[in-house]
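Subject: for your reference before the review

Hello V.,

The reviewers asked for a structural picture of the protein, and I figured it would be easier to keep everything in one thread rather than splitting it across files. Below is the amino acid sequence we used in the manuscript, unchanged from the supplementary table.
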Amino acid sequence: MSGSSRIVAVLGPTNTGKTHYAIERMLGYRTGVIGLPLRLLAREVYDKIVAIRGPSVVALVTGEERIVPPRTQYWVCTVEAMPEGMGTDFVAIDEIQLCVDPERGHVFTDRLLRSRGTNETLFLGSDTMRGPIAALVPEAQFIRRERMSQLVYSGSKKISRMPARSAIVGFSVDNVYAIAELLRRQKGGAAVVMGALSPRTRNAQVDLYQNGEVDYLVATDAIGMGLNLDVNHVAFSSLTKFDGRRMRPLAPNELAQIAGRAGRGMSDGTFGVTGEAPPLDEGVAQAIMDSRFTPMKKLNWRNAALRFGSIDALIDSLEVSPDNEHLIKARPADDLNVLKSLSQVTEVVARASDGPSIRLLWDVCRIPDFRGISHAEHASLLEVIYGHLHERGSIPDDFMARQIRRIDQTHGDIDALSKRLAYIRTWTYVAQRNGWVRDESHWREETRTVEDRLSDALHDRLTQRFVDRRTSVLLRRLKQKEALLAEVNDKGEVTVEGEFVGRLEGFRFTPDKSAQGTEAKALKSASLQALAPQFHLRADRFYNAPDTEIDFTDQGGLMWGEYAVGKLVAGAEPLKPVVEVFVDEAAGPDVEQKVQRRLQHFIDRKVAALFEPLLNLSRDEELTGLAKGFAFRMVESLGVLPRAQVAQEVKDLDQDARGALRKHGIRFGQFTIFMPLLLKPAPTRLRLVLWALSGGLQEFPEAPPPGLVTVPVAKDAPQGYDTMCGYRDAGERSIRIDMLERLADMLRSEDSRGGFEAKPDMLSITGMTLEQFADLMQGLGYKAERGEREKAKPVPTEQPVAEAEEQPVVDETPTANAEADDVGITAETAAEASESTEAATEAPATEKSAESKSYEPEIEVFYTFTWGRQRQQNRGPRREQGQGKGKPRGKPQGKPHSKKGGKPQGAKTFSSRPPKKEKAIDPDNPFAAALMGLKDGN
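And here is what came back from the structure prediction:
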């Protein structure tokens, strides 16, 4: 060391430009070495110097990376990897306060005591090192550098309220990942920086932050070691950390080292706490802001004068205690612990029998425990490596290839990739050692390639898990108040700035369901702003769309194609529903009004087309008096009205009023008064919706399938549902009201007191089986008596001449059963004919006996229907004329238009009162024709 060598300690808080000052000083000399605490920081400084002087004169040497050009002038290294005895003009050690670190402090102390440049030596670090440096290096000069910006304590903040450009610090991997996940959900994402990351992964993550793709950084205390980032605020999620042996609180100077990353250059910064971290003590916060900390007293030290005569001698030399009051013996590091473990292995002891072997053993023991699995496993691996190096002089290529091949896999999650990166660092370190592998360039390139591949995969996984590019892009553009470009494809999928954000369903935007919480709110806010022009374009297209593209649902919804754009709500009148539109507020009032007008036009035209007869009835000014009132009832009931509800009103209508109503298509049926045109499927479907709206139903019942004469009775249906459907409930099934009137016409000619059976035409128009018809008749008020009888067989149509001559002539006189069964003969007659035929044949007696035994008469079921109600309810056939009160029951009396004809039988009555004025016969009375016949007959 030259006597003119200058030793300077440049001390001060963070953001004072100390590292920048050291780089400038080094580049002022022909050669120089700078030692840095992290390989991440070493890579950053290397890149800066290469940008100034070019790669041909700059070397990068770390435990896992070695770039040494032939004409190297400047060496950028980690402190542990600094070359010794090179005699460069300049030497600098950064973050010299790490001399007190329990794990690595002895290395920094050794550099403080022994590393010198021939012209200048710089020690960069905290002002707390002034005392130890002055005591151990008396010739050192001191330069105090002040912070270029202010650092202010801002207290506690929730992560959800964290300002942009913030770094949140955690002290464990799990803590870092949890915070990053929370930021992804609430803020769009975060970059992750940890000391265990490879430089490639770390740089890729930092670029995410520096380029503004994310506004938040989650890191370990590694960012406190000189990493220069655009951070405005630093928040501590915890105030304790695990130092390798125990959990301990961070000292104020350690907090200051990390908090000092806030603010860069002349920009002020803030720091605080978040999460479960308690607020900082007022005195501690003030000390950090003023950069006033307790001076350091003692530095960690380990003997550098090692003896390699034997393993025990080496261990003894490593455990020598310092003889200076400012130094304390460092606690056993990993390398010393491994050495002690291997000294117990017989094979290792046998190999380490001389100085070079022991020196080689010590070099192997200094391989860092990158994997961090366990001390025993680490020692076992180093034993294998030492065996190969001692026996063969290098590690075999096939052994290296197997180790690397197992690691070279890019599948898996973040934890799996992080472990593989830790594993490859061991072999990267081995490949960087001179002479440890045969083909150094090949294995260095191979390990570097695998590390880069794993680093890229880890960066991708970190980004996928902790960065929502979509949300972060949208939030950033919103913050910058830039116009966002939105596109909507034919499927309604919305992309903003190329990112899928959700779907536009009609005039409502549905954000992507994968977004939740704050993320979903931010996504919807940004998307709706971008969609404003799309809403107007879509509203114009909708307004000009034909009615065929719009429809209503059974629940009153209004659809444009497959999208719901509104719903119907009750208006002042049943036939005048109003529209409630489904339009996002962000679309604006103009879009909402345009959609509302178009939907109102649609439903008004739909009502006008499907209920034209009813609307004409309501607008007929020629209707007066009772007819006008009845027309109002028909309109109010939407064109279908049970006769029982208006029996008196119908009775009060004169013939002129009825005629005026019939002109509008009203049919006065025996059970229902209705307009046949309104029973078609389309009006029925709309009538049910309008009826449900006016009735305030929560759930609208659906219309029955079109074209069916009868349908099962709807269970738990609202009262009046069957009428609105155009049906009438009768038993277990409902029958269409127009078909019911046809059935009523058939029933008028039947003897309802004496009993009658169902005709084929009755079953035909209802489409029912006999059992179903019986249930229907009971629902209409009839009694149904079930019976069984022998079924009549039909008369053969063609017979051989000889056989016909032998058969007796069948009596064709009508029997009691002939009316019910027009085709065939009675069972009794058929049996006689069969017996006569058998008697006339010449078959043997045995055959006749067999035929007689095999014959079994076929039994059929029949029903006899009689009127079963005590009083006429306007729901079944009226009581026949002449069957007044007191008439004897039993033998059926005559009935109008019966097949036999004739007048009703019964005793005549006399009265002394003058004849009563006869009331005009109701032409709509189902027995009007019969009454007229009786009147004429009298």
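For the response letter, the relevant points are probably these. The first strand starts at residue 6 and ends at 11. The mean pLDDT is 83.

Happy to draft the paragraph if you're swamped.

O.
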